[in-house]
Design brief:
single chain, 180 residues, two-stranded antiparallel ribbon, 2 strands, DUF3995
Length: 180
């Protein structure tokens, strides 16, 4: 965490590096739009980059990385929504998700910039990515009803404040990049 200022006298205010990266991404996108870069290009690059970054995080988790917690048991409570002592998904499961995310990134970029495949199939695939991300985003707000045990875990808050909004934002970006 970075100390960015004081919320009250003597209490430093912490700023997540992710907040700074998000701000940087917004500034870059605004600069690109100001430079005459088409909106769909900005959306394709931003969503493709974000999906690629999420794929990398899933590989990191599969290889045993502890972030965002300090230990594997904290990660299972924050990322998966299971109580301490539950096993974290296997390397294979993490790699499957990473491959799906990386494939989604490639599909979005190929649809926008031409990937040598059928334009109609690439477009359909990009819309499927937007649909799946949108379903994940909406489903995240219903998760506590389907899995009431998550309400007591850090996952519940993160799902509502980070995971679901991120999924919905990515769905909108992919859809925007796919529109003609």
């Amino acid at each position: 965490m970075l100390v960015a200022g004081v919320a009250r006298l003597g209490a430093p205010r912490r700023v997540s590096p992710w907040m700074l990266l998000g701000l940087l991404a917004i500034l870059c996108a605004a600069g690109a739009l100001g430079a005459g870069v088409p909106r769909r290009d900005v959306l394709a690059l931003a969503s493709g980059g974000a999906l690629g970054g999420l794929a990398a995080i899933h590989v990191y988790w599969g290889l045993g990385g502890a972030w965002p917690g300090d230990a594997r048991h904290e990660k299972v409570e924050m990322v998966v929504g299971l109580p301490k002592g539950s096993p974290f998904p296997s390397l294979g499961a993490c790699l499957v998700v990473a491959c799906l995310l990386a494939s989604s990134a490639a599909l979005v970029l190929a649809q926008r910039y031409g990937g040598g495949g059928s334009p109609a199939l690439l477009r359909l695939g990009a819309w499927a990515v937007a649909l799946v991300l949108g379903a994940r985003g909406v489903g995240g707000y219903l998760d506590a009803r389907l899995r009431p045990g998550t309400r007591a875990l850090p996952y519940h808050r993160l799902n509502r404040l980070v995971y679901s909004p991120l999924s919905l934002t990515l769905a909108a970006a992919v859809a925007g990049a796919t529109l003609d």
